[in-house]
Amino acid sequence: MARLLNIVENLDTTITFYDQIGGEAGLHALVERFYDLMDLEPDFKALRATHGASLDNAREKLFLFLSGYLGGPDRYIEKYGHPMLRARHLPFAIGTRERDEWVACMGRAMMDCNVPAPLQEHLLHSFFGVADWMRNKDG
């Protein structure tokens, strides 16, 4: 009987995802690339439309939130309190298109920022679950 090859790299969980991304500098680069792509790529048009004229506030809040979410400093909680993600996103129309564009945009940003492939896969799975939970409209 043939032996199965281990084709999945192990995720190093001895250090935080925050550290694996590159700490503050790596996370900052990821968030900047994410929002730059949203502004540049027509594939993310519906997602961009949910954000209003300026992305500055969104950039700051995503950076602060992801810092704690990925195991770094809880900057969002320190500044704004509990994230209450669903409640804070209710004013925005989020459907499957916006969800899918958010996840695709983050995937592209992670690839562009050279986030290790096993970590990308893990995070995209997690992000998809959160993004799906945020949906508040049909379609």
UniProtKB/TrEMBL annotation:
Q: Which cofactor does it need?
A: heme
Q: Name one GO molecular function term.
A: metal ion binding
CDD domains documented for this protein: TrHb2_PhHbO-like_O
Pfam families registered for this protein in UniProt: Bac_globin
Instruction: Tell me the PROSITE patterns matching this sequence.
Output: GLOBIN_FAM_2
Alphabetical list of InterPro entries matching this protein:
GlbO/GLB3-like, Globin-like_sf, Globin/Proto, Globin_bac-like_CS, Hemoglobin_trunc
Is Oxidoreductase one of the keywords UniProt gives this record?
no
Q: Where, if anywhere, are coiled coils annotated?
A: none
Q: Which UniProt keywords apply?
A: Heme, Iron, Metal-binding, Transport
The entry sums up its family as follows:
Belongs to the truncated hemoglobin family. Group II subfamily.
| Record protein name field | Globin-like protein
Organism of derivation: Advenella kashmirensis W13003
